[in-house]
## 1
Amino acid sequence: MERTREPRRWGAAAESGDPLVTQWDDGEHQGLGQGRVASSSASAPSVVAAMLTDLDVHPGQRVLEVGTGTGWNAGLLARRLGARAVTTIEVDQALARAARAALERQGLGAVTVVCGDGFQGHAARAPYDRVIATCGVHTVPAAWLEQCRPGGRIVVPWGTRFTRTEATVALTVADDGRSASGPFTSLVQFMSLRAQRQDLPAYADYVTAESQEKAERGTTVLTLGATLASEWDISRFVLGLLVPDCVVVFDARQEGRQPVWLCSLGEDRSWACVLFREDGKPSTVYQYGSRRLWDETEAAHAWWHEQGRPGLGRLGLTVDGHEQRIWVDVPDHAAGLPSPA
């Protein structure tokens, strides 16, 4: 859909409250049926509003935004803080150029639009009182922590590689500036920061004839619905915290069964396959390698239930530039959770 060709449809889509894809395949073409992977979008207004609420900006503060996209979020910040208080960085030249032009048309040309790698932040205008990312990350870059003032806030969609389910986290920088900590707030799904973008492994690359022959066979009474069914399920996010260096891949549904693969992202090449039954009977499980990935998943699921199924708000993240630690209820109290990859 193009705005110039179908202005009414375009306007309806823009006002619908849904995310609006604005670029496909890193701008290799104009989309129009050719696109394979969405590479930039205007986020759903509800998500934008929630993240800006978490950011908690006030007049007189300076903000760094990572992921300019259309420039809409930077424009909202500029209306609140003044255009000179906003720096936004975009890795894609064409997107940065278009966003700069859009901001100028709205009288917000004083916003600093930088074309560069957001992973590095923008030290030239640091320090900032707030840092916000409109792209998903698996690790919070040390540069963002270094460029944010003590007591400042960093709001970012964060997730593991387990699934594409992420959660926004609102981190407050410690008084010494060496770490930041805060709770997860909302389940979201964002395109990855390009510096951390990674294709999903193909399970067929893991499953050799030898590994199939040696795979251990078992069963599970857990159902797909209780573990991995919903893209927006808190259990899926939590399992990603507890089963590190692992990704979930859904295979084509078979008659009466849904195959789900778990693949280790380490050099061990471990894998598991669960043939989830639709009739509620125990499902068959195959596991291979030095890790028993489904056993880890079952143990993680049991731990989560034993802890009272903690959700967002009870779960949080601490980063210090070298490592990341997940906690439950009390910052820096790991409560049995392994460090995320």
Note: The mean pLDDT is 85.
## 2
Amino acid sequence: MIKIDTEPFGKTASGSNVTRFVMENENSMRIAVIDYGCTVQSIVVPDRDGVLRDVALGYDTAASYEKGGCFFGAFVGRYANRIKNAAFTLNGKTYHLRKNEGENHLHGTFSHRVHEGVIEENAVAFLIESPPSEEGYPGTLKGKVLYRLTEDNALEIEYTAVCDEDTVINLTNHTYFNLNGQDGSDILDHTMRLHADSFTEINEEKLTTGHILRVDDTPFDFRREKPIGADIASDDRQLRLTAGYDHHMIINGTTGTLKEAAVIKSHASGIAMTVLTTQPGFQLYTGNFVHEDAAPHGKGSVRYPRYGGFCLETQGFPDAVHHPDFPDSVLKKGDIYHSKTIYRFTVDHE
């Protein structure tokens, strides 16, 4: 049986109360989420020796979540990733979005406000609403992001949304994982296997060019298990542009079906994580700039280093509004947007 408790988690600068919801299963796995940004604040799982480790980067206070710039654990939208020139055309009309990364639009505001949280069976759900023209998007978007803890040590994240006008949408979660825990180590010795034969090329602005590249004979080939850091320092232009991995990996298989996307292991802790999703891809990010975070430190006063965590942000293709060959990101009026991702934790006794 999943136990769910609530507790205060401070206040925002504007005085809004922040609440933390803590879910715990029979195996002592605990997941804490806060209503500020629908944020995954901690994921505590047993290692090979039964010692509990918090494998999600984050902060101990609401103030740090407001100050920090890394989106630790955050729910992001209306559109995850980047939209070129902060504008798109839909049904013959051009919409101008908020420019929040140079001339471009990144992620949106969902991660920067308090959402209403409700307890459901074995889960915590947050209700989301975005009024018409917020950040320039059309229509009133309403929906829900649900975090469920299972007895087999999995975090399930499910998104649903509807809009009263045609719009574009791309929702994801931005949790950074370090399967060693909160010891200030990097993740370069974690091993990773990805079910991805290709990825989207980026330019100097980290925008997709629209070209899809094969991983063959590149540092992006994780089809066989290898350390994350094995090729991260390679003289590869795509890696040089971002000082590491920050690319949309395209998952093999049929979009819309729940399929395995990745397996990551820490041989130090014995903790392994398998990722399954209905999405067509995920942003692989290796925490290339977490050491420059605006918040003074992470949990337990730890200052996270470069490559201190990795993200697998399951999502639709970045900037799909400008690339008709990419899977469509348009949500038609009255249609239901739905996606599901599972992060399952196990112990590797090797």
Note: Residues 62-67 form the longest helix (6 residues).
## 3
Amino acid sequence: MRDRIARHFDFLVGADRLKSVDRANVLMDLSRPENSAEHSWHVALQAMVFGASDRAIAMLLLHDLVEIDTGDQPIHLAHDAAALALAEAGAAERIFGLSPDRDALIALWREFEAGRTPDAVMAKRMDHSQPLFQVLLAPEPLADHVAIVRDNLHGGRAARLAAEWPEALAWAEAAMAGLPPAGNDLTRRLAFLAEADRLKTVLRANLLVDGSRRENSAEHSWHLALYALVFAGLAGPGVDAGRVIRMLLLHDLVEVDVGDVPLHSAAGQAHGSAEIQAAEARAARRIFGLLPEDQARDFLSLWQEFEAAATPDAIFAKSLDRCQPVMQNLRSGGIGWVDYGVTFADIESRVGGKIAQGAPALWQWLRPRVQEFLS
């Protein structure tokens, strides 16, 4: 078991590098390029919004991990498809080979790449539509990016929308023509996804594993959902791993309004205060309220369940939410701990109990390593 946990962490630490792979797309505020980890989170959230299965969402969490080795291939640039496929296959063997579940993960990635099963078709549809929504939902879309979207819709991989999702194609055509969006459920869901894009600019106390910069909350949400996929076998009785992943995809969306509250800061230690809870509840109602009524209620309920941490799913989700920052600190020099003068006693009291409650084997593995690091 301990060797399996070590290998799982090797894979998850290696996956952290996806946060440094830039894409051709930019954030909706046009401030910087989107990276592939943020894209993976956003497209998985989009899939959740549009009714994808747990398996399709799992595909999207790991579909771009090969870009750690190969980089992103912009859709508007010519490339050698055969050579790229060969390079990506080699990357998949290396990256998924870090995991003790290599066979299952690489099979899921290959299923996505082949795009033939219903789950893979749905995942591909989400992956091919998210970049065009990313461009067209910006307050002031870049003209050259709009031109790429138009070409992609009419002759590229997004042309599939004509047959598979005509409503989305009609929305895109209207957006490119400068027409006001129809007030329907699609428009409401896209408004929610546009608001979610802002999570990519919310910085956390933790650094990336390579120490190059602060992690943001969208990347954290993706990484945490990947943790849930990887460590599903450690969940206790009654835990639905797919439901935990959905919970973690949206758990930090309130930070769009309230920002991140570092656990070890004074504000973090007062996180249970009525004032902070009220602010987060208002943010949840506003953000999830952008969705159609039934879905808004469902997403809000899932977020509230996570916050209450009383069900098996929420307890496991909370344990992973405490676990991921510990590993980030262990592998990045502990800057997130140094900044707040964190001691081993602090970690044990503030973090260890939460991890042990939902995933005791993880805390048993982490505890001596944290103790040695902070000694």
Note: The chain is about 65% helix and 5% strand.
